[in-house]
Design brief:
CNF1/YfiH-like putative cysteine hydrolases; globular; alpha+beta; six-stranded mixed sheet
């Protein structure tokens, strides 16, 4: 099965599969990036959930093979210890991926990372949550942001855009935002508690555009992709620079990891991005 569409290319190379955004490939002389495809890959770390050594070694090897496929060095991966926060941090130094726990203590409970340094591979993981890759080609700044339903609720992408602007002088109109495969409105069904949180937080966005009742007074479908797109537009990004892969992780759970499809034994996909 090929997931390629007008926004992404599905590449199969040396036994490794991944997606790349056509928009970001316009800057392939400056950046590397990929989103993993395949259920045989599991991009966990010890910090993600206490893996046994054999599982940890496989995870590191999966990162290594993905990085080799796009010609970057896995040893330079910086992967935050995601906890569904709205915390975004700047990365200035490389961290040895072979160090215990990926050496990620300083990125504990962090869900977004930004850098303007070359040869630092920013990584986040998902299994239905949205991952948004950001790139400003004018200031040569990248970011990798994990925005699950809690991160979206707490507007982590707004924090990331504002940090890029405040710390690196980026202008929103120059920033490109690419949304990786994730759960879509067709499968993101919530109950009253989550529905109420979203209705309160996003009362400034017409709910007819992003929420739909599926079981009267009991279940609702929410479009978190739409909400993130609106937040990006309101921060000043150009519509043509907001690119959605258009791929649902649940609909394509034969190729992509999905918590909703896999249950408690779910594994993780990853998105990586690097300045050359």
């Amino acid at each position: 099965m090929d997931l390629s569409n007008e926004y992404v290319i599905h590449i199969k190379k040396d036994g490794v599969e991944y997606l790349q955004f056509k928009k970001l490939l316009e800057y392939s002389d400056k950046i590397n990036h990929a989103y993993s495809v395949g259920l045989d890959r599991n991009f966990r770390t010890i910090r993600d959930g206490g893996l046994e050594q054999e599982e940890y070694n496989k995870s590191v090897n999966d990162y290594k093979q993905l990085c080799q496929s796009i010609e970057c060095n896995y040893i330079n991966i910086v992967k935050p210890n995601q906890r569904h926060t709205n915390v975004v941090k700047i990365v200035n130094d490389k961290i040895n991926i072979d160090a215990p726990d990926f050496g990620m203590e300083q990125y504990n409970a962090t869900d977004g990372v930004i850098t303007n340094k070359n040869n630092i591979v920013l990584a986040t993981t998902n299994a239905d949550c949205i991952i948004i890759l950001l790139y400003d080609p004018e200031k040569n700044v990248i970011a990798n942001v994990h925005s699950g339903w809690k991160g979206t609720l707490h507007r982590i992408i707004v924090n990331a855009i504002r940090m890029m602007c405040n710390e690196f002088g980026c202008k929103p109109e120059n920033i490109i935002a690419c949304m990786c495969p994730s759960i879509r409105k067709c499968h993101f069904e919530v109950e009253q508690d989550v529905k109420d949180l979203y209705m309160e937080e996003f009362k400034d966005i017409d709910s007819n555009d992003w929420i739909e009742e599926t079981i009267k007074d009991k279940k609702w479908h929410i479009d978190t992709i739409f909400i993130n797109r609106i937040m990006l537009q309101r921060e000043g990004l150009k519509e043509e620079n907001i690119v959605d892969s258009g791929i649902c992780s649940v609909c394509n759970s034969n190729l992509l990891h999905s918590y909703r499809a896999e249950g408690k034994s779910f594994n993780l996909s990853t998105a990586i991005i690097e300045l050359k």
